[in-house]
Specification:
18 strands, Rossmann fold, 520 residues, 3 domains, single chain, binds xanthosine-5'-monophosphate, 5-stranded parallel sheet, alpha/beta, 9-stranded mixed sheet, GMP Synthetase, Chain A, domain 3
Length: 520
């Protein structure tokens, strides 16, 4: 089944993934390709049009990315954004030059001419460019200006070529999604068939073709991606799927039971559940260095999984919850090393001697799509939309030594904090458009810091809980959440009263950077 799609050529802009997300929000499938991808690969997708992304280079620099020949030869509609617009201009005989000043930030686009992409009037747009169009190519009309860009929007209506100097994909361009929708649906005539149902149908077919009648194994740890991937494979191959759940004893309150109940009872997945809490505690005994904790947990997880897989006769296929940003970030041009590393700090890899073939049913999905698909497959909303949680679990947030008592202390405090937030409607579990109301991630941290307190007539000498709550779009930068004082007071009071061994609660006021979201 091939559904209508668009191809986005990536010239290295930090916003390229957002273009794809916005187009897919309009239910049109699109794929990202590094700009120098071989033509056959891009055209195999049978795109209905092209979007050329922004990028950090200048079109007139030597060695700058160039316009692939097949784009204009195809006769399909093209939308060039920022660098993409400049490239289109250069390729079609217009002129690009340096702006007198680099333009970065909000600006007003004034559209005067009737056109199928942007209604006439003034709208707020987001600019980020150093070059600009000095002369549009023959056949193009200037369709809109901004105070600093006399040619902020141009088009050749007969050839269906358009150029935008601003970024329609970012939230700071409020009308941007509508521009992309019009381009995809009205100009390219792509039908909006990218829905959770069609995603599932496609993915199920792909998995069935890949594995045939073979047995497939999946390791679930409670994370959203691995749970949705597992549910998808089960939909595809039914009881050919065997699922191993390793309970590390480091999950949040009620989480292990929820994962088991959901997979087993709700989805009818055959589940081998390994209660390994004691093993993990033993392995972590006396360890305080965060990296060492991560390493121990990753290795033990694999060892336990490996043991189970061998007992099951080592199936040939292994389910993995790789998602689209992981795939894109490891192949995109001009990304910094730091950006590339970001998504790969999960529980470690599998040993070399286990030659599994990977089944990756979420390989083309963004996180929000994974969640929508998860719900559609029957996973509870509370599980699918919950906030991110590190692979090594509560161990990351239990600073100092890990003992059953300390983990329980942390788990209890965390449950109080998150339940109060949920009740106040502030535990926003998804990446939303507006992060000012609520938290993208909120949790408790146990500090090995003892201080003196007084309870009743008793002097106490106990540990400290730090509360961490942040707002963020992408988890790469974050701000501390401005939670109401009354809520913080209630949470603090409940924690010192209800959690054994804690006599002090503090709230973390640092942003990322310079701090990180997690404490370790
Ligand atoms: P930091 O603390 O680096 O975290 O600001 C950024 C985001 O990554 C999450 N995180 C992890 N996720 N495995 C994961 O799957 C991990 O080991 C891990 N460590 C941090 C963190 O919760 C935050 O959302």
């Amino acid at each position: 089944m091939l559904i209508d799609s668009l191809a986005i050529l990536d010239f290295g802009s930090q916003y390229t993934q957002l273009i794809a997300r916005r187009v897919r929000e309009c239910q049109v499938y699109c794929e990202l390709f590094p700009w120098d991808t071989p033509a056959e690969r891009v055209l195999a997708q049978k795109p209905r049009g092209f979007i050329l992304s922004g990028g950090p280079a200048s079109v007139y620099e030597t060695g700058a990315p160039t316009m692939p020949g097949y784009v204009l030869e195809s006769g399909l509609p093209v939308l060039g954004i920022c660098y993409g617009m400049q490239l289109l201009t250069q390729a079609l005989g217009g002129k690009v030059g340096a702006s007198a000043e680099r333009e970065y930030g909000p600006s007003d686009l004034n559209t005067e001419t009737d056109n199928p992409l942007i209604p006439p009037g003034i709208q707020r747009v987001w600019m980020s460019h150093g070059d600009r169009i000095e002369l549009p190519p023959p056949g193009f009309s200037v369709l809109g200006q901004s105070p600093n860009s006399p040619i902020a929007f141009m088009g050749d209506l007969s050839r269906r070529y358009f150029g935008l100097q601003f970024h329609p994909e970012v939230h700071h361009t409020p009308g941007g999604k509508e521009i992309l929708r019009r381009f995809a649906i009205e100009i390219c005539q792509a039908s909006p068939g990218w829905t959770p149902e069609s995603i599932i149908t496609q993915s199920v077919q792909r998995v069935q073709q890949q594995v045939g009648k073979a047995t497939v194994i999946s390791a679930v740890s409670g994370g959203v991606d691995s749970s949705v991937a597992t549910a998808m494979v089960q939909r595809a191959v039914g009881d050919q799927l065997i699922c191993v759940f390793v309970d590390t004893g480091l999950l949040r309150q009620g989480e292990a039971a929820q994962v088991k109940a959901t997979l087993q009872e709700r989805l009818g997945i055959e589940l081998i559940s390994v209660d390994a809490a004691e093993q993990f505690m033993r392995a972590l005994n006396g360890v305080t260095a965060p990296e060492q904790k991560r390493q121990i947990i990753g290795e033990l997880f694999i060892r336990i999984f490996e043991q189970q897989a061998r007992q099951l006769g080592l199936p040939r296929y292994l389910v993995q919850g790789t998602i689209y940003p992981d795939v894109v970030e490891s192949s995109a041009p001009d990304r910094t090393q730091a950006q590339r590393i970001k998504t790969h700090h999960n529980v470690g890899g599998l040993p070399e001697d286990m030659q599994f073939e990977l089944v990756e049913p979420l390989r083309y999905l963004f996180k929000d799509e994974v969640r929508a698909v998860g719900e559609n497959l029957g996973l509870p909303a509370a599980m699918v939309w919950r906030q991110p949680f590190p692979g090594p679990g509560l161990a990351v947030r239990c600073l100092g030594e890990i003992t059953p008592d300390r983990i329980q202390r942390l788990r209890h405090a965390d449950a109080i904090f998150t339940s109060e937030l949920a009740e106040a409607g502030l535990l926003r579990m998804a990446l939303g458009e507006d992060q000012t109301q609520g938290t993208a991630q909120a949790f408790a941290v146990l500090l090995p810091v003892y201080s003196v307190g007084v309870m009743g007539d008793q002097r106490t000498y106990q540990e400290t809980i730090a509360l961490r709550a942040v707002t963020t779009q992408d988890f790469m930068t974050a701000d501390w959440a401005r939670l109401p004082y009354d809520l913080l007071a209630k949470v603090a009071s409940r924690i010192v009263n209800e959690v054994q061994g804690v006599n002090r609660v503090v709230y973390d006021l640092t942003s990322k950077p310079p701090a990180t979201i997690e404490w370790e």
